[in-house]
Amino acid sequence: MTYDYESNKILVVDDEVDLEPLICQRFRKKIRDGKYNFLFAHHGLEALSKLLEHPETGIILCDINMPEMDGLTLLSKLKELKNPALKTVIVSAYGDMDNIRTAMNRGAFDFLTKPINFEDLEITIEKTLEEIRQLRQSLEEHDQLISIQQDLITAREIQHAILPKVFPPFPDRKDFDIYGAMNAAKEVGGDFYDFFMIDNDRLGFVIGDVSGKGIPAAIFMAVSRTLIRATGLKGMPASECICYANKLLCNESISCMFVTVFYGILNMANGELEYVNAGHNPPYLLDLNGTIKTLDMTNGKILGCIEECNFDSKTIQLNPGQTLLLYTDGVTEAFNMQYETFSNQRLEELIKDSAGSTLEGIIKKILDEVNIFSAGAPQSDDITLLAVRYQGKQ
User: Fold this and answer.
1) CATH no. for residue 361?
2) I need a labelling partner for 146 at 20 to 30 A (CA). Which of 183, 280, 281, 298 fits?
3) pTM (predicted TM-score)
4) 335 with 188, same domain?
5) Which residues contact 314 (CB under 8 A, 6 or more apart)?
6) What domain count does the chain have?
7) Helix (H) or strand (E) holding 324
């Protein structure tokens, strides 16, 4: 709905035939300049008809005692319109205070007494018009906020649609398992995870955390995820993939935005994992016996800041049954009501206790424990987890 801030139509409802020429004469300059636009009706029924013709009318100057439909009845009808930007000013004799009081109780904005003091009338009109302008502006801003909220909901749906959410994603594959989840702190988030088959033997997977929150982070997240996926599908080594993606992101980055990324390529034929850590939290490697360790860093810088930057990769050997858990700092830095963080220590204990669990079970257990820990405290950051388990040739 669009509101006309400049609407200045004033409907005068009074059965006195001499009032129309008096008002037109008194306000002729403002009428000529377009500041006031007067309409006239002689009773309530005619006033309602005029409102249908001119729904943008802002002020009704209304007498109380009129034929066919009096002012008090008209007020009741106007209330049914539920138009907060339509203000009624009652005009009646000074001795008619009981009716004036009734009119105010029925929703009249203000009142004037007869005989009309035109200076007082002008002050009242100006005050009422200003009230209407402010109210209409508030209504328009409210509509804009509702529209933005709807856009955010749509953006959230789009963002979730581009993240994998069907598990198991490759039901015919028995040589690996994978599961991921993301809980955004706001309507849209800056975290992401993704995975894809590069060829029949190699699985590419990535987790990322964009700086900042909200719409800018969500857009940068979508660009980062798309670039890494498109580059990774070409089959180039992990270091070359991240180097190329970084150059493109540096050209797209605005407001000093950046993203931390862990990108890995797991070879199902032999369990070899090649990876690049570009400033991200080091993932945990979980053995079947509950032993865990973090993967070594690769001295990689964050993406999107330095265009001419090389990224080293490392290679490790995974044994059948080993699980790699990737996460963003929204997990370890989740706050409770005492401003304590969930911490790496709590996360590590959960991972150790999860040996032998399904990947879905591990991730849901972590999410549940984070929610219990931070109960009552607002979520300050996106929470994202991705788990990969190498099963070996079956």
Assistant:
1) 3.60.40.10
2) 183
3) 0.68
4) yes
5) 274, 275, 295, 296, 298
6) 2
7) strand 323-327
